[in-house]
């Protein structure tokens, strides 16, 4: 890589269309080379060599590479530590989109230092959220920590400019002409192909229109299933917000929650490992390994909890209502540390996103910035009666449901609720 070429570094934005950083690279530079790095610091933390998300990334890169080669350029795919890789090359400039996770911030600071020694700049752009770190703040200049006022400010500030797509295609001529480059195999980056059906990258308008009425019923296809595409950037957040504004405000609110949790992670990176409300770190968790195993395997004796865990284990997906029920059950009924559940979801979810996963678990445990109060304990049986009244969801995932092979409840709800209230109250005194 010589100093006449500029790098665009793909990360959580695996698409050409409406890509902010790529737009700025092509608009401001010529001879732009596209790069993706299989980051060993991230991959080494993945335990399963058949990790479905790595397969999804790999397939998305194949698509991206093909699209680039149709434009007489290609995609350089490397495997290693990004800091080491940028130490060895000498580009004119590097463009990329901002990542808000603590590791990503440390990595980018290190890359920036390495590039600066060469007289090269790392240009970071907003792409995976609508509003960036300094764009939605209180009048005092402090970040919001409660969703409702954050969402009001978010909606009041939104206009066509912030939701507008970037016309990247106008500058495709500025790609560097490159013959097709080789692509490493999955095995060369330490993984094997997972066999699974990934959600389509299709925005189904009828589902969006009915979202507010159907979103809480797991037996119904009432949610968009687009979260994996937003997580890895195969779909633009601006595109889905444009549709949400026209079709369904409740769905728009879910997208605002996504921005909100990214900003919480940015301003309060300690939440990665600690409760947003420090007092909640005083809770005396039981952390019973046998009960945790039963929860992980979907063998608690509470059908809607077990169905959710079985679906997660088999597909990498869990309905959002069921995520709340299963998380509440682990933290309140079993008094198992929310970090254990968060880590398990992080291993299994196709759409795993640290900001949303962390925010959701802290919400369920009552310890987050804008959480359900600790005395709110979901009753799994009532939740099932309300949201799966015909047991369609439960029967789809629990083949032994209704037989003597299905386990008895691991704990009685009333007892568990009273115990949780006592333990929480003692910690918060």
How would you describe this protein?
- With 429 residues, this protein is an alpha/beta fold.
- It folds into three domains: 1-127, HUPs (Rossmann fold, 3-Layer(aba) Sandwich), CATH 3.40.50; 128-165 and 203-267, Alpha Horseshoe (Serine Threonine Protein Phosphatase 5, Tetratricopeptide repeat); 272-428, DNA Cyclobutane Dipyrimidine Photolyase, subunit A, domain 3 (Orthogonal Bundle), CATH 1.10.579.10.
- It is built from 20 helices and five strands.
- It has helices at residues 20-28, 40-43, 52-69, 82-88, 102-116, 147-157, 160-163, 205-209, 211-214, 227-232, 237-247, 249-267, 289-297, 303-315, 320-333, 338-348, 354-365, 380-387, 392-397, 413-428; strands spanning 6-10, 32-39, 75-80, 93-97, 122-125.
- A five-stranded parallel sheet has the order 3-2-1-4-5.
- Helix 15 (320-333) packs across helix 17.
- The termini are far apart.
Q: What is the assigned CATH homologous superfamily of the largest domain?
A: DNA Cyclobutane Dipyrimidine Photolyase, subunit A, domain 3
How far apart are the first and last residues' alpha carbons, in Å?
A: 60 Å
Instruction: Give start-end ranges of low-pLDDT stretches.
Output: none
Beta content comes to 5-15%
Shape by Cα distribution = globular
Q: What Rg, in angstroms, do the CA atoms define?
A: 23 Å
Percentage of residues in helical conformation: 40-55%
Instruction: Tell me the total number of β-strands.
Output: 5
Write down the domain tally.
3
CATH top level label of the largest domain: Mainly Alpha
Structural class: alpha/beta
